[in-house]
């Protein structure tokens, strides 16, 4: 495969899933969230509200050992684990190559 490539799957509240590949060294947390936001606008079958119109939402990522990392968007700012992080690369935010599963929480 391509070095630095990860497949991110996001489980939605409806039970549906979004999936896309990202480069962990190049793509940012903001780009990941923009992809999910765009899907909420363009694909009504997902059963999502328009995320940019929501007060906030978060993506939860399981981390080992036994924890969770919260990627949060609220009031136009992006936080990862409580720290401002919109411009961080996915790698800097703790993403690995291969695959990652996230859960969307509204």
TrEMBL record:
A UniProt-annotated Pfam family: UBX
Database matches in SUPFAM superfamilies: Ubiquitin-like (SSF54236)
Species of origin: Zooxanthella nutricula
Name the UniProt record assigns to this protein: UBX domain-containing protein
Domain UBX span(s) in chain numbering: 1-37
Domain of life: Eukaryota
Region (Disordered): 74-93
